[in-house]
């Protein structure tokens, strides 16, 4: 059952009566911005570049969401592409925006095999361990108190549930996962620490592997607080089986879950039937998260078809977001915010 807790809606109403401008209704959107319709954090991935250069993009983001996740700006390949020459400009800009607009930040991501600088991949094991520790400590401390949750490790499993063959796994072994959570926790004890992956929406060998790992880490006292479920879906492959059951089994382990990167791609061009299926998928993600109290966040991977990773990676597919290229809300938006 969908739990719509109207407290944020009530706050918006009180603010309106008092003459406080909380938001401005656009002509074509629902009367209440998405962020005020739920007690879940409602987020979007954001690109610092567009935040700075596109006022309409910034306005919709500010109005509709109360969490932001830097899409690329906190990844190792961005913050230290060249050893010893850090670049925090994009990450700083997003964190400052979030502070100014009273949004939380989901940090993404500390340890990932992709967008990893070549100089890191080339390090021998002992040095890699030290450099990894320094990277985590430096980045987490830089934003201490300003990041609600971190995606500490990203995409460490194969589809069959075996560990992905990354430089971290090759050189440091399975145990690197427990280490990186401990290092992140030491750097900011208040931040919620997550493991994050795709294709773990339903119950399958990969989500089983995540489940087993989280269970083991919790037993060992490793500071892991949550499981990030990316939810990159396509209307071509059906909605994942046993989504709610999956959220529930993680909740029973005592950890939070979060929908961290939701989008639903469709074969282009979109038409009414495809958009209706997309709306149904977004709705089932939204309702499923609201049915499990420990599912605390619903974040989409970008909010506008104007800027989405999907067409670059899946030629012939796209239109995966809640808003179209002109920032008009799509049927999927009205499905979760009727
Ligand atoms: O910044 C450079 C730019 O200088 C250059 O001109 C341009 C030329 O291609 O590339 C730019 O970098 C691109 C970067 O996005 C920023 O736009 C990279 O090539 C491109 O590979 C990178 O893609 C990102 C991808 O992660 C990397 O694997 C996507 O934007 C981002 O949406 C995507 O996000 C991932 C999550 O982090 C993890 N889960 C899956 C999700 C989708 O793949």
TrEMBL record:
Signal peptide coordinates: 1-30
EC number: 3.2.1.8
Reactions catalysed: Endohydrolysis of (1->4)-beta-D-xylosidic linkages in xylans
InterPro entries: GH, GH10, GH10_dom
Protein family (similarity comment): Belongs to the glycosyl hydrolase 10 (cellulase F) family.
Organismal lineage: Bacteria, Bacillati, Actinomycetota, Actinomycetes, Pseudonocardiales
Name of the protein described by the UniProt record: Beta-xylanase
The GH10 domain, residue ranges: 28-338
PROSITE patterns assigned: GH10_2
Entry keywords, A to Z: Carbohydrate metabolism, Glycosidase, Hydrolase, Polysaccharide degradation, Signal, Xylan degradation
Source organism of this protein record: Amycolatopsis melonis
